[in-house]
C-alpha cells in the first residue's frame, strides 16, 4: 500500500499551538478588558466578503487589491468573493447593512484573521490577525485622540515602552487634489531617479511614491511638495486639536509628512505606532480618519476614524522585550492506580472544576494506567500544585489523598470526597 502523503499548512498560514496560544489569550484578555473601559463594543464580521467591497473601500489602485487579495468565484452562483484583507471595510459594510448609526455614533472593535498573498517574513504572514478599534459617526479630533490614547493604554498594559507615534494630516479631497497636481508636476521633473514602481504610481497614486523605501529616491522624495502646506484652515485646526489633546496627556508625537497610509479611504488624521525592534516590520499599529468611506461603500455620509494592530507583530515585540506573561497554572493532577476508580475520579474532578479548580486526569495508555511512579512523574511535569491520589484504601473510606507537589516537602493529607468542594474553596491558601 502506497504511503499517504503528509499534508502541511499553506505557506504563510501558521498553526498557533499550546505554549504560544496562551500568549494570544493573554493579549486578547487585555484587549477585551481595555475596550470595555473605553466603551467600545465587539463586532464580528464574516471572513468572506464580496470582492467589490474591497475594490470600492480600499481602492482599485492599491497593492492590496491589485496583487494581494485572495479572490475567487463562487462555483454555485458565480459571485466574486474575497477573503477579507483588512477589517475596516467589513465593519463599515456591517454598519450600513444593519443601520447601526440610526441613533448616533458607535464605538466598536473587532479581532480576527485577515488574508493577503504576500511574501512571508517575520511579522508578516499570508494569514495574519488584526485587532481593530473604530469610532463611527464622530467628526472631532477628540475621538481621533481617544483612539490613540486607547492604543497607548494598551502598550502600558503589555509593558511595551520602545515605540514612537508618528502623525500626519491628509486634509480633505480638494486639498489633496491641489497637492496631487503639484506633486505630479514635481515627480515629472525627477523621473531619472524613480524606479519602475514609482513611475507606475506617479499618475495613479502619487502619494504612495512618497512612501518608497528605495534609498536612491530618498533625497528626491524629501524635497517633494508637502501636503501639510496645502491644508486649509479647518484641516489645520483639526490637526492642531489632535496635537493639543496628545500634549495634554503627555503622549509624545512626531509629524511625519511622508506618512500617507496604504489605503485610499483616509483623510485628515493618520497615525502609526512604530518600533525599531522588529526590523522592516516596525509598524505595530496604524490608522486614521476615513470620513468618506461610509458613503463610498453605499451608506449615508458619516465621519469615522479607527486603527488596527497586527497581533503577530505585537506579540513579537512582547517577546523581544521579555515581558512577563503569567502562564496558566494547573491546580490538581489526579493519580489513578486502578481504572475501576474512574467513575469516582471523574465525579470528583467535575465538582472541582465547577468550583473553579484547574484539574487534569491521568488517563490509561495502551498498557493500562501505568505505575504510580510514572503517574507522579507526569503529575510533576504538568506543573500542578497538588496531586489527588485515588487509592483503593482511601476510596473504601470515602476519602482521597491530597499531596502537595510544590512545597518542597511533599506534605499530604486525607480529604473526604463529600467535602471536596469545600476543600477547593480554600485551595489558594494551601501551600
Give a short summary of the structure.
This protein is α+β, with helices and mostly antiparallel strands and 431 residues long. It has helices at 21-37, 51-58, 63-68, 88-97, 141-158, 173-188, 196-204, 218-222, 233-248, 293-296, 311-320, 342-354, 372-381, 392-396, 420-425; strands spanning 41-42, 48-50, 70-73, 80-83, 106-115, 127-136, 164-169, 254-255, 267-274, 283-289, 304-310, 332-335, 359-361, 386-389, 399-404, 412-416. The termini are far apart.
Structure explained in plain terms:
There is one protein chain. With 431 residues, this protein is of the alpha+beta class. The protein has two domains: 21-171 and 231-320, Bira Bifunctional Protein, Domain 2 (BirA Bifunctional Protein, domain 2, 2-Layer Sandwich), CATH 3.30.930.10; 332-429, Anticodon-binding domain (Rossmann fold). Helix content is 35%, strand content 20%. The protein is built from 15 helices and 16 strands. The strands form three sheets. It has an eight-stranded mixed beta sheet. Helix 12 (342-354) links the parallel strand 12 and strand 13. Helix 1 (21-37) packs antiparallel against helix 5 (141-158) and helix 5 runs parallel beside helix 9. It starts with 20 loop residues before the first helix and ends in a 6-residue tail after the last helix. 33% of the residues are buried. The model has no long low-confidence stretch (mean pLDDT 89).
How many distinct domains?
2
CATH class value of the largest domain: Alpha Beta
Separation of the first and last Cα atoms = 56 Å
Low-confidence spans? none
Oligomer state equals single chain
CATH topology of the largest domain: BirA Bifunctional Protein, domain 2
Strand order of the largest sheet: 1-5-6-11-10-9-7-8
Number of beta-strand segments: 16
Number of helices: 15
What structural category characterises the helix and strand content? alpha+beta
What is the radius of gyration computed over CA atoms, rounded to a whole number of angstroms?
A: 28 Å
Please give the CATH architecture of the largest domain: 2-Layer Sandwich
Shape: elongated
Amino acid at each position: 500500500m502506497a504511503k499517504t502523503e503528509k499534508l502541511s499548512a499553506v505557506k504563510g498560514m501558521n498553526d498557533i499551538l499550546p505554549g504560544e496560544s496562551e500568549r494570544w489569550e493573554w493579549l486578547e484578555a487585555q484587549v477585551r478588558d481595555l475596550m470595555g473601559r473605553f466603551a467600545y463594543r465587539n463586532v464580528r464580521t464574516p471572513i468572506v466578503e464580496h470582492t467589490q467591497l474591497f475594490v470600492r473601500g480600499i481602492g482599485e489602485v492599491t497593492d492590496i487589491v491589485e496583487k494581494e487579495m485572495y479572490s475567487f468565484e463562487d462555483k454555485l452562483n458565480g459571485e466574486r468573493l474575497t477573503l477579507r484583507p483588512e477589517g475596516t471595510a467589513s465593519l463599515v459594510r456591517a454598519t450600513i447593512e444593519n443601520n447601526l448609526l440610526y441613533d448616533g455614533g458607535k464605538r466598536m472593535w473587532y479581532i480576527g484573521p485577515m488574508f493577503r498573498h504576500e511574501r512571508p517574513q517575520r511579522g508578516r504572514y499570508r494569514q495574519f490577525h488584526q485587532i481593530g478599534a473604530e469610532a463611527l459617526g464622530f467628526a472631532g479630533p477628540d475621538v481621533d485622540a481617544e483612539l490613540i490614547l486607547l492604543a497607548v493604554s494598551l502598550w502600558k498594559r503589555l509593558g511595551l515602552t520602545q515605540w514612537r507615534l508618528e502623525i500626519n494630516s491628509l486634509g480633505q479631497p480638494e486639498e489633496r487634489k491641489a497637492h496631487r497636481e503639484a506633486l505630479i508636476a514635481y515627480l515629472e521633473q525627477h523621473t531619472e531617479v524613480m524606479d519602475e514602481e514609482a513611475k507606475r504610481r506617479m499618475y495613479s497614486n502619487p502619494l504612495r511614491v512618497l512612501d518608497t523605501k528605495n534609498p536612491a529616491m530618498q533625497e528626491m522624495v524629501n524635497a517633494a511638495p508637502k501636503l501639510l502646506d496645502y491644508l486649509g484652515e479647518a484641516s489645520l485646526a483639526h490637526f492642531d486639536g489632535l496635537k493639543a489633546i496628545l500634549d495634554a496627556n503627555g503622549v509624545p508625537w512626531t509629524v511625519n509628512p511622508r506618512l500617507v497610509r496604504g489605503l485610499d479611504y483616509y483623510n485628515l488624521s493618520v497615525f502609526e505606532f512604530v518600533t525599531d525592534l522588529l526590523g522592516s516590520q516596525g509598524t505595530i499599529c496604524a490608522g486614521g480618519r476615513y470620513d468618506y468611506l461610509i458613503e463610498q461603500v453605499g451608506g449615508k455620509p458619516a465621519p469615522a476614524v479607527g486603527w488596527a494592530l497586527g497581533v503577530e507583530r505585537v506579540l513579537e515585540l512582547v517577546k523581544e522585550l521579555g515581558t512577563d506573561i503569567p502562564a496558566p497554572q494547573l491546580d490538581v493532577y489526579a493519580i489513578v492506580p486502578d481504572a475501576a476508580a474512574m467513575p469516582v475520579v471523574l465525579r470528583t474532578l467535575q465538582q472541582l472544576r465547577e468550583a473553579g479548580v484547574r484539574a487534569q486526569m491521568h488517563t490509561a495508555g495502551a498498557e493500562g494506567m501505568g505505575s504510580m511512579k510514572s503517574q507522579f512523574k507526569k503529575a510533576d511535569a504538568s506543573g500542578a500544585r497538588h496531586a489527588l491520589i485515588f487509592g483503593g484504601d482511601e476510596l473504601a473510606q470515602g476519602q482521597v489523598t491530597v499531596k502537595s507537589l510544590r512545597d518542597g516537602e511533599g506534605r499530604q493529607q486525607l480529604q473526604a470526597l463529600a467535602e471536596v468542594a469545600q476543600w477547593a474553596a480554600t485551595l489558594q491558601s494551601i501551600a
